[in-house]
């Protein structure tokens, strides 16, 4: 049965029951009762008409929602159509420009063709192009050779060291393989009991590994001003089981005054007690701290060097380090320097009384 009919039937039954109850309880006149009974179909009609209105309203709501959706779809089509129309306008603009570009190109070609000494001009362009190609080829060849040298050094280093786990990267911020190989030669030859390194990283691990490899009773003290690099260097040391050969010391930078200039250098607390340094490797702090950032290393640690110590200054490829070296030598004529040609160049300092090493 349809819902509306059910409601009409319910209204009719409900009305009849209500009239019967009223007749029993209130005992109205028979005329009133007849009128009330006769009103039943009217009430049922009203209910039916109300239900039909509700149904029509629900249908209208559904149609409105459908219309809203279709309107939204139509709007998006209109939006897209407007976009397409705009692109079309641009294409037309470009098409308009086409002939004028072609005309400009023709004019340019004519101008170039009409240039005096055209052949001479062409020859010069060809010569310049050939020169660029030759120089690029030479540059690539030199670069390949230098890279090959680093690979050779790295290969020798791995053969020397007792490496059974992955090593951190070399070059860039870290020492290059050729410098690490030089350090290896020094460690083997000098057998330093105490190595002090300014600036930790890949070199820390290699120095410790070489001490173990050559069975030297020595240790590395690495000064590092950045906590994060202390942690990464130490993690690498532990990974390679080298803790008995290394100390990575957190040495925050502090102001130090030398020759009337204030520098930022490793806190004295981290190195004050050291003595008898056999190998001092100066590879920090970073140059971006200011001019001659590595200058304090030698004036502050010179008295802590053993008589036959070697000092290695990295990055002599930079003018700043070259100036630092000159200042060191000017202040200490009892030391002499040997420049070593490497990827980033380096200098070895020894007491003048010691012969040059010819590394
Ligand atoms: C030239 S690096 C020292 C490199 C180290 N002797 C070696 O051979 O790996 C000098 C300082 O730069 C910082 N440093 C190290 N690795 C870095 C990196 N990958 N990026 C930025 N700074 C770095 C550390 O504070 C380090 O003491």
Automatic annotation (TrEMBL):
Biological processes, Gene Ontology terms: methylation
GO MF annotation list: methyltransferase activity
UniProt KW keywords: Methyltransferase, Transferase
SUPFAM superfamilies named in the record: S-adenosyl-L-methionine-dependent methyltransferases
A Pfam family the protein falls into: Methyltransf_24
Superkingdom of source: Bacteria
Stated name of the protein: Putative O-methyltransferase YrrM
Source organism of the structure: Actinopolymorpha rutila
Upper classification of the organism: Bacteria, Bacillati, Actinomycetota, Actinomycetes, Propionibacteriales
